[in-house]
From TrEMBL, chain A:
The protein, known as: ABC transporter
Residues in ABC transporter domain copies: 5-236
Metal-binding listed as a keyword: no
PROSITE patterns: ABC_TRANSPORTER_1, ABC_TRANSPORTER_2
An annotated Gene Ontology molecular function: ATP binding
Gene3D superfamilies: P-loop containing nucleotide triphosphate hydrolases
Keywords: ATP-binding, Nucleotide-binding, Transport
Keyword ATP-binding: yes
Length: 313, 257
């Protein structure tokens, strides 16, 4: 089976001895929308840097649509579009120059590049700004410009390193719609993000990376099913003494707010029954945090604890 | 360049580089015209008239080729040094590094941009010199060969400098402490035959002597160096600098982690 991305035993030791990747294995299927998550310094950007040839690997293999990075680097590059984390275009060039030049580096003729530039700049709402210098754009526009630039050579694999960092909610949603559309059109997408809601909403599969290794590689659905306990915040009519709830763990935040940790199997009915019995009125209820966020923190912590105990053993 | 992808990429880099120096023409094309006009007025007309002949021609005729060459050297070098370093510093060099652009294409593209600016400046300075001294040409082939080889060599020098540079200061150190002294002592303003024999021998190690004299030979047929020796020296230096730039870029020195 050919994968969009196939990484095995990838290692990177930086000069100075820092081991950023410690034998990382990862596969991403063709057509997938894949989230690569991990805390800062986990090795996400190093992995992306190696795939996109900006960082030299120490050892291991990387294949993109079956092409080997070591022996078929040009084919690998042709298949990848990269949207880096930091703005890295020339701020003094116009949008049109930036995207058309980028296409030129991939061998796309200027005539064809201009046609594609019109298509993608229009789709990303930047066409009116095409003759503006990039430095005059807003932060959100700069992010979209980097997406347009990455698509001009029509890659089959689009890698986005935190594409919505610092982007307002409305714009983020329009970027999600755009990415979902091009994914449906057949582009495999790998995304790193710190907005776990983003990963949950967009991605079918997910890899969690910590300290240079993949600690979880599964479907989003399977991962969320692992979550056994959810925390809810309940807004109450003001109360004078803490309620007694036996079916869940409860914490009182103030005289009108409590938090309850509810096991998935237990459900919420018993909590409400107990509160009703004590004449406490629930005004509203919400999830405390993003479910994935909790799971992510748990997984990373678990991974670290098991490593530490293995080291002490 | 048989691969059409490489050719399109090369053309793109070259156009991008030319667009850059033409966009900032006040910084790139006007200063050499003003500086050289001042040289022509002060050294050529005012002081030169009191110096008399040098190398069998008037002092003004003698220094014009040297001053054109000085502009070529400075502009080829600084164009590539500042453009490549800015691309590295702002990280837009990554646009090329992630694309299937070969290292040779990157070198040729940047060097091509530096050579284009150097030649344009050479034409401007030559036109300005026409106001002070009638233009004469002894060997057009020698003029073209020396100017292109010199521009290429210093464009490569600028590229090497930019690869190693870590700050903007690093791209001004070599021009200030190496390039300027070598150029001023490179026979632009005097014939090395005027020097004591020891310093004449030392001057043979200054590569700029060969460029200035080869170029001057093309205009006025006067040279302290055999023209073919000048071409040979230029070819050797070009080959060494090109190989070094290619090797360093392949290793990713200063550009890849």
């Amino acid at each position: 089976m050919t994968y969009a991305l196939e990484i095995s035993e990838l290692r990177k030791t930086y000069r100075g001895g820092f081991e950023a990747l410690k034998g990382l294995d990862l596969t991403v299927k063709v057509g997938d929308f894949y989230a690569l998550l991990g805390p800062n310094g986990a090795g996400k950007s190093t992995t992306i840097g190696i795939i996109s040839s900006l960082v030299n690997k120490s050892s291991g293999t990387v294949k993109v649509f079956g092409y080997d990075l070591d022996t078929q680097i040009n084919e690998v590059k042709q298949h990848i579009g990269l949207v880096p984390q930091e703005f890295n275009f020339n701020q003094f060039e116009t949008l049109m120059q930036i995207v058309v030049n980028q296409a030129g580096y991939y061998g796309v003729s200027r005539t064809l590049a201009k046609e594609r530039a019109e298509k993608y700049l229009k789709q990303l709402g930047l066409w009116d700004k095409r003759n503006e210098r990039a430095r005059n754009l807003s932060g959100g526009m700069k992010r979209r410009l980097m997406i347009a630039r990455a698509l001009l050579h029509e890659p089959k694999l689009l890698i986005l390193d935190e594409p919505t960092a610092g982007v307002d909610i409305e714009l983020r949603r329009s970027m999600w719609e755009f990415l979902t559309r091009i994914n449906k059109e057949g582009v495999t997408i790998i995304l790193t993000t710190h907005y776990l809601e983003e990963a949950e909403m967009l991605c079918r599969n997910i890899g969690i990376i910590d300290k240079g290794q993949i600690i979880e590689n599964t479907t989003m659905k399977a991962l969320l099913n692992k979550l056994n306990v959810e925390t809810f915040v309940l807004d109450l009519e003001p109360i004078t003494k803490p309620p007694v709830i036996e079916s869940a763990t409860m914490r009182m935040i103030d005289d009108h707010t409590i938090e309850v940790d509810v096991a998935k199997s237990a459900g919420l009915n018993s909590v409400f029954s107990e509160l009703s019995a004590q004449n406490i009125k629930v005004l509203s209820m919400r999830n405390k945090a993003n479910r994935l966020e909790e799971l992510f923190v748990n997984l990373v912590e678990q991974g670290r604890e098991s490593k530490e105990s293995a080291a002490h053993a | 360049m048989r691969n059409p992808i490489y050719f399109t990429a090369l053309k793109t880099i070259w156009i991008k580089e030319c667009t850059r120096f033409l966009r900032i023409w006040v910084q790139t094309l006007v200063p050499p015209a003003i500086t050289m006009t001042l040289y022509f007025i002060i050294f050529g007309s005012l002081i030169g008239s009191r110096i008399g002949e040098m190398g069998g021609v008037s002092y003004m005729e003698f220094i014009v080729p040297g001053l054109i060459m000085m502009s070529v050297i400075t502009n080829a070098y600084s164009n590539v040094a500042s453009s490549f370093f800015s691309a590295k510093f702002q990280r837009n060099l990554e646009e090329m590094l992630v694309a299937p652009v070969s290292n040779i294409t990157i070198i040729l593209g940047y060097v091509g941009g530096g050579v284009a600016r150097a030649l344009l400046v050479a034409i401007i300075v030559t036109l300005v010199s026409g106001f002070f001294v009638p233009l004469q040409i002894q060997s057009i082939a020698m003029i073209i060969a020396t100017v292109i080889l010199t521009a290429t060599l210093f464009a490569l020098g600028g590229l090497l400098n930019a690869m190693f540079a870590k700050s903007f200061d690093d791209i001004s150190i070599i021009p200030t402490f190496v390039l300027t002294p070598l150029t001023y002592l490179g026979g632009v303003f005097y014939s090395i035959t005027l020097l004591p024999s020891f310093w004449q021998a030392v001057s043979q190690f200054n590569p700029i002597i060969y460029m200035v004299n080869g170029f001057r030979y093309g205009f006025i047929g006067v040279s302290d160096i055999q023209p073919m020796v000048a071409i040979a020296v230029l070819l050797v230096f070009n080959a060494v600098f090109f190989t070094l730039a290619w090797y360093l870029l392949k290793r990713g020195t200063g550009v890849r982690t």
